[in-house]
Amino acid sequence: KSTIKSSNYIPEDAFLISVPINRNYTDGNHILHFIEASGKLLYESKIKTLFFIFGSSNNQFFNELSNKYNEKMDFIEFRFYPINSNKYSSLMKICDLGIIFEGSKYGLDLTPEFIQVASSNLPVIVYRYGCVCELYKKFHKSALYFNSKEDFLDLFKKIFITKEINLKELKFDSENLFNWVEMWNEALLKYIK
After folding, report:
1. How far apart are CA 99 and CA 90, in angstroms?
2. C-beta of residue 75 within 8 angstroms of C-beta of residue 46
3. Are the beta carbons of 126 and 113 closer than 8 angstroms?
4. 71-128 pLDDT, tens per residue?
5. Whole-number Å distance between alpha carbons of 16 and 78
6. Nearest alpha carbon to residue 178 among 138, 143, 148, 141
C-alpha cells in the first residue's frame, strides 16, 4: 500500500517536484524513460516524492504518461494536472524542484514553462539546449543542466541520495534576476550603434 493516503494529501516529509510539459511537446528526447528511471531510483532509496506533472489533455504524451502512472506506489506518486488549472501556480510555489525537458524549442527562445519555473524561484534541472543557460547566467547555481539520461540520473543521485547538492541553497531571488538595461546594452545596443 502507498504511504500517501489521498490525492489531496501532501506529506510534510515528501520532496515535491514540478514537471510542466508544453502542450505541443512530443517525447523526442524519450523523457518517459528519464521519469521512469528517476522514479525507480527514488523508490529504491525509499525517498518519499511527489511528481506534479502539468500538461494539456490535447497532448498525446501527457495523456500516455498519466494513463501509465495513474496508480500510487510506495514512496513515489505521480499526480497529473492541466497546466491551465488554478492548482498550477499554488503547487509550483510549494515545490522543492522543477524539471524542464524543453526549455528552448528553437535554440534562441525560452519556453513559457521554463520561465514560469524560474519565476517561482525554484531550482531547476533543465535539458541543456539552445539559450537555456542565458536565463541563469548570473545565478548559475539555481540551474542544473543535463545532456543525457546518465547526467539526469547523476543529478538525482547528488540531490537525493549522496546529498552533494542542497536544493535550499539553489533557490534565488527572481526580482534580482534581470537588469534589463544591462541585458539590452549587452545583447542589442552594441549592434544598433
Report:
1. 17
2. yes
3. no
4. 666 788 888 888 888 888 889 889 999 999 888 888 888 888 888 888 888 899 999 8
5. 10
6. 138
Contacts 24+ apart (CB under 8 A), 4-13: 4/48, 4/50, 4/72, 4/77, 7/79, 10/50, 10/94, 11/48, 11/50, 13/48
C-alpha cell at 118: 524560474
Closest CA to 143 of 122, 162, 174: 122
* Amino acid occupying residue 69: Y
Neighbouring C-beta atoms of residue 33, cutoff 10 Å? 12
pTM: 0.78
- pLDDT tens figures, 23-71: 666 665 567 788 888 988 998 999 999 888 888 777 777 777 777 776 6
**99 by DSSP, 3-state: which?**
strand
Amino acid letter, 110: L
